[in-house]
Specification:
This protein has 285 residues and is of the alpha/beta class. The chain has two domains: 135 residues, Rossmann fold (3-Layer(aba) Sandwich); 107 residues, HUPs (Rossmann fold, 3-Layer(aba) Sandwich), CATH 3.40.50.620. It is built from nine helices and ten strands. It has a ten-stranded mixed β-sheet with strand order 3-2-1-4-5-10-9-6-7-8, sandwiched between helices. Strand 9, helix 9 and strand 10 form a beta-alpha-beta unit. Helix 4 packs across helix 5. The radius of gyration is 20 Å and the shape is globular.
């Protein structure tokens, strides 16, 4: 999986989406690819008219939306002139438009509008839906200024976790960062009944970390790979603690659970204070 061949970012003229655009432009520049910026134009939905209500000319709102795209493209050109930018004004709701463009993209980048309850509402209406249905990995960007720290990969032995390690290794190599693979040791069975049981649990975690490190190292031999075994009340809590100070956290959309979008991924995206990239494939795969 290569997430940098086709990068698409959603833009809606908010500070959060501006950060997402600038982060995506920096990644595009680092990987020598172009950037597609899309804006969901909701006017056709709002201005189509109802019984007794006249239809309002859409030319003005459409021109305004096009100017938004022109302005953000100029901002990218000023900061990353080597990046080729394409802009698209697409009629529809943000959820539908971003879901549609993700089907042909290798990476969809979106911003957030806040934290806590506000972010929870957003994740419930747009971002969470994208994480559930998107046809590509989704990067949820809170800041374009997170350039320090390691690239963090969450690994639990699942196929999705393995793909997260691959993507994280690629990003760490691109940025010249350290890759840190983490595994949260489930303490749901603690306290262990004896020392042998406790050792077995730790041994499995260490084996998984060795497996992930070998996978990343075979993908990029020059990459510096660190491993960490974490403990916490939940996988999400362990990942949130480990992600503090990381450049980005990369994780699978679901681990060993059966659901289409795991509770760990949801909780981590909801409460993270940094950037998170959720790796997923189209349902057809």
């Amino acid at each position: 999986m290569n997430v940098t061949r086709s990068i698409v970012v959603g833009y809606d003229d908010t500070t959060a989406s501006t950060a997402a655009v600038r982060w995506a432009a920096d990644l595009a520049r680092s990987t020598d690819v172009g950037l597609r910026i899309v804006h969901a134009w909701t006017w056709p939905l709002l201005g189509s008219g109802m019984a007794g209500v006249p239809v309002i000319d859409s030319a003005g709102p459409r021109n305004q939306a096009l100017r938004l795209l022109d302005d953000v493209a100029e901002d990218v050109a000023a900061k990353a002139p080597e990046v080729t930018v394409h802009t698209d004004l697409i009629p529809g709701s943000p959820r539908d438009v971003l879901d549609e463009v993700s089907q042909s993209a290798d990476l969809l980048v979106v911003g957030t509008r806040g934290l806590g309850a506000v972010l929870g509402t957003l994740l419930g209406s747009v971002s969470r839906g994208l994480l559930h249905d998107a046809g590509s990995p989704v990067a949820i960007i809170r800041s374009e200024h997170h350039h320090a720290g390691p690239v963090l990969a969450a690994y639990d032995g699942s196929d999705a976790g393995g793909e997260a390690v691959d993507v994280a290794a690629d990003l760490a190599t691109t940025w010249g960062s350290v890759l840190r693979v983490v595994h949260v040791q489930d303490d749901g069975h603690a306290p262990y009944s004896n020392s042998l049981e406790a050792w077995s649990g730790g041994s499995r975690s260490r084996s998984l970390l060795d497996q992930a490190a070998e996978r990343a190292g075979s993908r990029h031999q020059e990459l510096t790979v660190e491993t960490r075994m974490l403990e916490g009340g939940s996988a999400a809590a362990g990942l949130l603690s480990a992600a503090a100070g990381a450049r980005i956290l990369v994780m699978g959309h679901r681990g060993l659970s059966r659901g289409p979008f795991g509770s760990t991924a949801h909780a981590t995206v909801l409460h993270a204070t940094g950037n998170v990239l959720v790796v997923r494939r189209p349902a057809a795969e």
